[in-house]
Amino acid sequence: MDIKLKNKFLYFDKYKLRCSLGKRGITSNKKEGDEKTPKGKFSLKYVLYRKDRIKKLKTKLQKKIIRKKMGWCDDTKSKSYNKLIKFPFKGNAEKLWLRSRVYDVIVVIDCNIKPTIKYKGSAIFLHIAQKNYTYTKGCIAINKKDMLFLISKIKNKTKLIIR
């Protein structure tokens, strides 16, 4: 069973989950920093989560605990572009250990990962939405309850389809 995104909702099986998207909509030509959510059919790589905030995480996807020095490289000049990194780091990278709760659970979407193409977008995640479902920089965000439900149901072969 795949997850389909349409009109600011994720559809999975018989469930309809509200979500937020990139501030500038959906695109079939993703570029770094364009604030657009990429269109396509994507695999779900693994789940990153804050063990100090999420005590029990049920999923069939591989799990990795977010540590204080973890980040995600968004530096197009770096060999680590669009990859998990550890701070201190010489290039630009986004911290994954945040005070806000948006990165308490992250599903890494296989967008521009294999192969990684410079300037084609980085850090495209499914993560926790802000309370008012504020736009993202290109990610998809859902509320925490929906996230924990969804990742408990998806399988390794589940695809995310964004139209």
In short:
The chain is mostly beta strands and 163 residues long. It is built from one helix and 14 strands.
Descriptive notes:
With 163 residues, the protein is mainly beta. The protein has a single domain (3-162), classed as L,D-transpeptidase catalytic domain-like (Beta Barrel). Helix content is 6%, strand content 34%. The strands form three sheets. Strands 1, 2, 3, 6, 7, 11, 12, 13 and 14 form a nine-stranded mixed beta sheet that branches. A three-stranded antiparallel beta sheet has the order 9-8-10, with no helix packed on it. The chain has a two-stranded parallel sheet with strand order 4-5. Strand 1 (3-6) and strand 2 form a beta hairpin. The longest helix is centred in the last third of the chain and has 10 residues, at 144-153. The two termini are 17 Å apart. The mean pLDDT is 97.
Task: Note the total helix count.
Answer: 1
N to C succession of SSEs: EEEEEEEEEEEEEHE
The third-level CATH topology is L,D-transpeptidase catalytic domain-like
Oligomer: single chain
Largest sheet: 9 strands, mixed
Structural class: mainly beta
What coarse outline follows from CA principal-axis ratios?
globular
Q: Total strand count, please? A: 14
